[in-house]
UniProtKB/TrEMBL annotation:
PROSITE patterns from the UniProt entry: PROKAR_LIPOPROTEIN
Domain of life of the source: Bacteria
UniProt KW Ribonucleoprotein keyword: no
Position of the signal peptide: 1-22
Lineage: Bacteria, Bacillati, Actinomycetota, Actinomycetes, Mycobacteriales
Native source species: Antrihabitans stalactiti
Pfam family, any one: Abhydrolase_1
Name of the molecule in the record: Alpha/beta hydrolase
Record's keyword terms, sorted: Hydrolase, Signal
Keyword presence, RNA-binding: no
Amino acid sequence: MRCVNRLTAVVFVSILVGSACSSNSDSSQSPPTTVDHPPAQFVSGPCAQTPTPVPMLDGARCGELTVPLQRTKSDDKTIRLAVATIPSKTQPPTKVPLVVLTGGPGQDALASPPLNPDVPLNGDRDVILMGQRGNLTSSIKMACPEIDKFAISRLGLVYDAKTTGDTYVQAVKECRDRLAPGVDFTAFNSTDSAYDLIDLRKALKIDKWDVFTHSYGTDLGLIYLRMDAPAIEAIAFDGVTPPSVAALGWTWASVKQAFDNMIKACEQQPACKERYPDLGATFIRLVGELEKNPVTTMVDDTKVVIDGGKLLAWFTPVATHLPVDFPAQIDALDHGDPGPVARSMVMAFGNPEGIGFLAWGMTLSIWCSEWVPFESLDDQLQKANDAFPQFPDSVKAQAPQLPFLREACAAWNVPKAPDSIRDITESDVPSLVLSGSYDGQTGPVWGDYIAKNLSQSVVAVVPGAAHGVYAEPCGAEIIASFFDNPTKPNTSCEDSTPLPTYSIAPPR
């Protein structure tokens, strides 16, 4: 069963052998030149404090890695990054260590490790977690409670309204103004995070290791693979975010693929097809009707406004993670009962315990320098039209899960990253490319995209899995099998895992 807390987290919400070639940039801008700094230092110590206990850290060996804050500057400013090593159950370990890169950007690997406790990966190897710079467990924390509080309040706002965007931008400005006196925003980027991984490996005296990446971690992992390929024995990508294409319009292909797969599943289940014969057309019609005439309802004391944009925002992470009731919820909404959809919105988007958990400062610093500047508004809208031409223009104007991000980036005000950040990673390092057929955030289309340039890759798609395939039994088994045998993992559960059976509500 998918965990509600994990659903809330994923709403925002993975050089030598791996040579690079140009993608949609001209690569005329080289990576910034680094200057010499003292070697990074790892000092053992207590494990970092996390908002809630993380059982798998019990017995971990912990400490902090001190690295340069700005590798392009000759000053002596540093940042400390929390590290935890989950020891191998077999002592001494018989396999190389495994380092884990998590998502967001802005999620913390120690506070929310993307590992399935039912299929542990530390049977015969150490598993290493490091909180990326700017995240919850680093010495410079870039949380934005202002944005978290806005995200909760948005439940009661019209999703696509300019006033909603203005309120979001104001929250972004307030966070930036609060952080600015003590933060150099240009120090928080994927390239420096990749250097941090190299520093960690060297500080721990590791010659070779395996790498597991999830969500934004795949973006970072592909960049890191270009920089340190000889040290990587095998690398797995779960929920692919390619740095060469990640932007606003990039999101639409995943939503469309998940939508098509979930509608097709209803058509293939006789009871669902009979009870909800026009599910796909109904959803698309509701997006248009609700965008024109939003509905308002209450969930306990929480006001919820459902317009077309918010219905799509609900589908992308919520319906895909909890697919069983999707047809019945849409049918209820179509018959004047917004309660089922509204309650799941509040469950996913309205949790006050998440305030301060995501490092929005890190998130925006990456999105606004590495993603948004590399795509024109026309290209963004074309991708929306390609996916859902029937949607109203106001819905297509806002990328799924990233509404008003261009306006937010104008307020965040960080410089565009070098064009080289968009290079395509080519490598012959053994790779697993793992996706879920219901992943509306990082769909299988993007797994296929990167696999073309990873010559030793194995591609697997888990039926009915959403974002975070590692959390599913089949996904966890494939990951474990891959790291046990990178050249021939057992992916048989890909063919034997059934799609979730949709629930059937009584006729109205």
